[in-house]
Amino acid sequence: KVGWYNAVLPPAFHLPYPDDTLAFVVLSTPSMFDKALKPFVNKEWLKIIRDPVDQCVSHHLSRVKEKFPDQKVDVIFDYEILPSRKPKFLAQTAAHVAGAAYYYQRKDVKLDPWGKKKIYGVCIHPKYGGWFAIRGLLLFPDIQVLFLEQSAPVDCVSTEEKRIELLEQFNFHWQDGRYRDIIEVRERYSEEQKTYFATPPAERFRLLGLTQ
User: Fold this and answer.
1) Residue 201 — pLDDT band, cuts 50, 70, 90?
2) 204 with 151: CB under 8 angstroms?
3) Taking the domains of the chain in order of start, what are their residue ranges?
4) Residue 152, by phi and psi: left (phi above 0), alpha (psi -120 to 50) or beta?
5) EC number(s) for this protein (predicted)?
6) Which of 55, 72, 84, 149 is deepest in the core (most CB within 10 A)?
7) What's the predicted TM-score (pTM) here?
8) Per-position b or e across 27-48, b if 16+ CB within 10 A of its CB
9) Is residue 93 left, alpha or beta, with left meaning phi > 0 and alpha meaning psi from -120 to 50?
10) Which pLDDT score, from 0 to 100, does residue 43 have?
């Protein structure tokens, strides 16, 4: 429910829908690269003018909208921002309240070792660890789900030591990706996919065999 999300955030970040409005958080799993992105690029390469992943996600979510011709469906993508430069929605908070992935933050550590340092939180998925991404929100403004019960996300990094290790790795060593394997995972990015996301955006077109 939109109300679950709005309840944990200040008004500046609220989504402008009634509390009982139905919403879905959309995640991409490791297999997205081979199953969705590469086929999309092969088919749509003449039309690609900005970020291939963003356009691929947009393409697939527009197809989801088509499945509901009698419903109003609003889509918000993870990369969209407001004129104030704030994101249109806080993806990690949305994933947490939807029960999709646990958003580990500084407040989840009792004995905080970081002093005045800025520490960012990170979502961990119970199956994929950090090998996934939050891509968007699907909102159904005309569907009110008064009796929908909230599911808590799986707390898969449950010890203090592991939480400290996770936040340390994410904040200070994120480039090496070790934080993604903080738990045993079922699937991770392929070497090709790792290379793609480790490459500066301007050079990714070349990896996909595209000219920018």
Assistant:
1) confident
2) no
3) 2-208
4) beta
5) 1.16.1.6, 2.5.1.151
6) 55
7) 0.93
8) bbbbebbeebbbebbeeeeeeb
9) alpha
10) 85
